[in-house]
Amino acid sequence: MYPYVKFLCLIKRSLTVDILALKKETNFTHLNLFSMRYRDTRDSEKSWIFASRSNNPQPCAGNTPVPDAVVVVPFHIEKQRLVIIREFRVPLGGYQYGFPAGLVDKGEKSVVAATRELWEETGLTLVNVLRQSPPVYSSSGMTDESVSLVYAECQGEPSTLANEASEDIEVIMLSKEDAASLLNTPDLKFDVKTWIILSTFATAGRI
């Protein structure tokens, strides 16, 4: 069998999971737990608990065209710096280094959400989208949440005046050397996407 035919067969086989039962276990506004019983590709019955932004998750429906959230990777065109944020995260009990991010409102375009979130969290204005990822997943063992990475150019002066009351954010602008130094600082907490992008930026000096 040709390698690409074998690969397609593996993909087809991976789509044969049968959902036997799906139950919503909590009732909160933005995030809920669901329990699922399913039969896997080996015809073995199993169970799983996961979190979802949706009130009606569809685990076998394929990729969603609209992500749950956006993550903005902003490069300041005037200062020639990569923009990140240092934000307090309750589950971590401390500050995490990451990128501006937020949920996509119903009916909202991803780029519109990215523009809004960038301004709300950093006071900066998005002026040009360089590229955008499809919906991707970073914690699929725990949640079906999808995000779209929006690489963009921005301008303006940093400000946190538009932060929500629950947000504790510091805006940071990094040179290539700054990024390398941050990555080599012990005991800091990083969002996984931020760590990967900072590693590339520290080497190449561009996003």
From TrEMBL:
- In Gene Ontology terms, what is one molecular function of this protein? hydrolase activity
The Nudix hydrolase domain, residue ranges: 65-198
Q: Which InterPro entries has this protein been placed in?
A: NUDIX_hydrolase-like_dom_sf (IPR015797), NUDIX_hydrolase_CS (IPR020084), NUDIX_hydrolase_dom (IPR000086)
Provide the reaction this enzyme catalyses.
GDP-alpha-D-mannose + H2O = alpha-D-mannose 1-phosphate + GMP + 2 H(+)
What GO biological process, any one, is recorded here? Answer: nucleoside phosphate metabolic process
Print the keywords alphabetically.
Hydrolase
Query: In the UniProt record, does the keyword Metal-binding occur?
Result: no
Q: Which cofactor does it need?
A: Mg(2+)
- What family classification does the UniProt entry report for this protein? Belongs to the Nudix hydrolase family. NudK subfamily.
Q: What is this protein called?
A: GDP-mannose pyrophosphatase
